[in-house]
Amino acid sequence: MKKEEILLKTEEFVKQCMEGDSSGHDWWHIHRVRNIAVKIAKVENADLFIVELAALLHDISDWKFSDEKENQEQSKVRIWLEQMKVEDNFISHICEIIKDLSFKGAGVSTNMKTLEGIIVQDADRLDAIGAIGIARTFAYGGSKGREIYNPKILPVLHQSFEEYKNTKAPTLNHFYEKLLLLKDRMNTDSAKNIAVERHSFMVTFLEHFFMETWLNKESYSE
Ligand code: NI
């Protein structure tokens, strides 16, 4: 099968899997991540096929939506790529990127092993900040039954993946536990540049949020 055909079929497959999602992990998230990833990949001279496939498939079986074991989580992607007759070494590379991709808490480092992985991670993180990041964060919080904010529950910088994964904190805290940290965790210069403006937009948003809610800004810190 030609690469273009594999990409088109994968796009259809992903659309079907993510249809109707209201948690911020819908098809349009994938669409944006794919576009940004491909842009960065061209600048960085990365393998476009790997980057595009990994971007398309990166949220198919995220830990946030699945309690299965890690190897089972990846199997959906692996089975799909095998069906598409993608070369074995490409399949392993893509599965590895997807496994290493997620943000797992403020104090937990996630090191991508290849240039292609670094790029998909940057693209995914860019879609978590700025105006779209704000919209997605509140949508995700709502989908998990979290409050918008609660002055009695303040942000915590999670030092383990378990802690981060199990948090039930209000969505506002998520800005301090993750979103405001992402600007400094971008890997490529292209992503760092895009992140600057998106970050400052979130800071402005938060300033207004505090003004309108009379929350004590000092109890939330970056
Ligand atoms: Ni994602």
SSE blueprint and pairings:
Layout: H1 3-18, H2 27-44, H3 48-57, H4 70-83, H5 88-100, H6 115-126, H7 130-143, H8 161-165, H9 171-177, H10 189-213
The site of nickel (II) ion has 5 residues, from helix 2.
Task: Tell me what the structure shows.
Helix content is 60%, strand content 0%. It has 222 residues and is mostly helical. The protein has a single domain (3-221), classed as Hypothetical protein af1432 (Orthogonal Bundle). Helix 2 (27-44) runs antiparallel to helix 3, helix 3 packs across helix 5 (88-100) and helix 4 (70-83) runs antiparallel to helix 5 (88-100). The longest helix is centred in the last third of the chain and has 25 residues, at 189-213. The relative contact order is 0.12. The structure holds nickel (II) ion (NI). Nickel (II) ion is lined by residues 29, 33, 58-59, 124.
